[in-house]
Amino acid sequence: MRMLFLLAVAFGLTADPAQAGPVGAAIAAIGAVIKGSVVLTALAQMGASLVLSAIARKLGPKPSQQGADVKFTVEMGDDLPLSFILGDYATAGRRKYIGSWGRNQRFITDVIEVSALPHPALAALWIGDEKAVIDFSRIGTISGAEGEVSDVTERPVGASFSGQSLGHPAQISSLKGKRRIWVRWVDGTQVTVDPLLAFAFTGDQYPWAGVGVGKAYAVVTLQYDREDLTSMPTLLFQPAPLPVYDPRKDSSTGGSGPHRWGDRTTYEPSTNAAVIAYNVARGIYWGSEWIFGGRNLPAWRLPRAEWVAAMTACDREIETAGGVFEPAYRCGLEVSVDQPAADVLEAIGRAANLRFAEVGGQLKPLVDLPAAAVFSITDGDIVISEGQSLTPFYPVAQTFNALSASYPEPREGWASKDAPQRIDAAATAADGGRYLPTSVSYPACPYATQVQRLMVSQLSEYRRMRQHSMTLPPDAYALEPLDVISWTSARNGYEAKKFMVEQVTKLPGLSLTVALREVDPSDYDWSPALELPVVITSPLQPIGFAQGIEGWAALAVLLTGNDGKARKPAIQVSCGANEPDVSEIRIQIERSGVVQFDVLRPYAAPFVWTLTDVVAEATYRVRGALISERTGSFVWSPWITVTTQAISVWMEDLGQDIRDEFERLASEGGIKVVDTLPTAGTAPDQLVMLSTTKKIWRWDAPTAAWSDQITVAIGDGQVLAQHIAANNILAAHIGAGQVTADKLNVSELSAITAIIGVLRTATSGARTEMHTDKLMVFDENNAVRIRIGNLG
């Protein structure tokens, strides 16, 4: 073991102090395995094979475990190591460029590199703390010169247009239905500079003019909104899973499908934990360029049968409490290329009950436990000439009966969430009623129900504490780590009890020393009844304080001159006083559905504002809002309808030439011009005109008072047909009996348009009647003697 540890040190892959010991050395060893085949050969020559990831390491007394390490803060700088996403995961990414453009710089475009490898699509976007609703059926488009762009036109995807695409609109609740954010995904297969960035940022404005070949990034454009989008929100991106190689889908290696190792165009997105682990172990490449994990590792070092079995086990359908089925083991994480690949495999393994063993230069996986043993022994099979050991239980400091866990929860914005705690009642009773808790994190498992399955199985298995070390004869020489054997022992009271082989050391003479730990495949059985409820508190974008307005009022007023006479129509508005931190009031005036004015006025005593840009006798709607220094949001008052007042034209408003013309016309008409009304008229119906107002008055003798009611008589023949507009004299305008026969002057009856109706020579007795449709003759007894026309 000391030689193995020193070998790991030579490759810089030793575990940290909390990982020291056999398991830590195993992790270091497999890290070296992934580095290259030379180390694999060295390990094989040493004759030692170790299980990479044991549950004991997960639940050790001082576990060295990373938390759910979703990156919520965008990184900046070109000196950072490459990173990429495996499976389902989210990241704030790395800012490659940000800038403003458009008229008055009202647009901001942020370029975020999400992964150093191509991803086919953007699965989800979080804006602030809220998952955005992306309308993938529409795109926002712009046209015109860069400095003149002020508006965005949305179109259905696939519609033709000229200009640039901003991408799909992304909606959050705080925008209240407004379209202000657009996102466009660039999947990593691009070969030219992004057209929007080249349009919006030219020359020195756009220093990041690279294509970004092979890198998936998002182009997020925001339009400034002084009400609801006044600052840059935080962004979190979840790309679609990375396409990876699945040997089960490679018909050239015994599978079925088009996958071919090294040809990324044949790969498919996957969240299967074993499939992802296989790709990490064999190596992540972009074309022929090595990125991460195993390097130049031949396929035989990852034996197909064991890996296919692990992949199939991860795909097994598991029923949840809601009756929904989900894959047994999925995973997701962000990988930085400066991480040890062994750490990544350990995180994946922890998320999927997936163990690894380096056996004879090969890396073998195991998911859960096999149901059947591959070898059976009794007490008589043990080589008694060699030493034996038994560890029946852990020290109290390493004994646990309750398990807490944390994991990244996508439904809560990828924040780290605590899963419901698991307490083993039987184990607690066996421990004398003592509550012995521990905790574990699953940074690569963003699935709530899967976390609960992991907790149940791992706590149950950890309670199986019995460990043995012994030497077995040559017929057990084929045993490997991860194999399960059964042991019937009268000495220990075992009846076909199952043990896992955790370590194998080959000895001269074909015997071997094995380290065993008790296991039970039933620990991995799952029932929906075991699922505990998880309370999800979906984060919402915090909607800040919105400034309201109280006491809003509006009325029509007339502005007066120095003489006290009304000169101009206006609308006067007012609202409540002394609102704290309010600096301005915003007032909108609308007429016929069109906003005529949108103005800001200082918010100050007496909190009354007069709006003069209106016309007389017109109907307007007016509303107001207060602008606070504490928030960019405000609430409009209700609309108030106001009709402005009429304005009279005063004599002093007229020029002297107009006044003189009035007096001349009055004089010619026999109307006397006076400065004031006389006490009495000189004759009935005398007319005078006041020089000050140019108004005509009549002396009404019966009432002995001046009256402005003047009767105008029209002489015969003065009103002709051309003086009367069509349809202006109606029946309602003529009194009853006022039109007599002598008033009709027609030469023919045809000049009168009407139906005949009934014409009678007498009302009864002998008579003749002419109707519209017949002629009838009656005798003196009112009997019809002759009927011509309609005989009905």
TrEMBL record:
Signal peptide limits: 1-20
InterPro entries membership: J_dom
Pfam families reported for this sequence: Phage-tail_3 (PF13550)
UniProt superkingdom: Bacteria
Domain Tip attachment protein J residue range list: 339-504
Keyword terms: Signal
Listed name of the protein: Tip attachment protein J domain-containing protein
Native source organism of the sequence: Falsigemmobacter faecalis
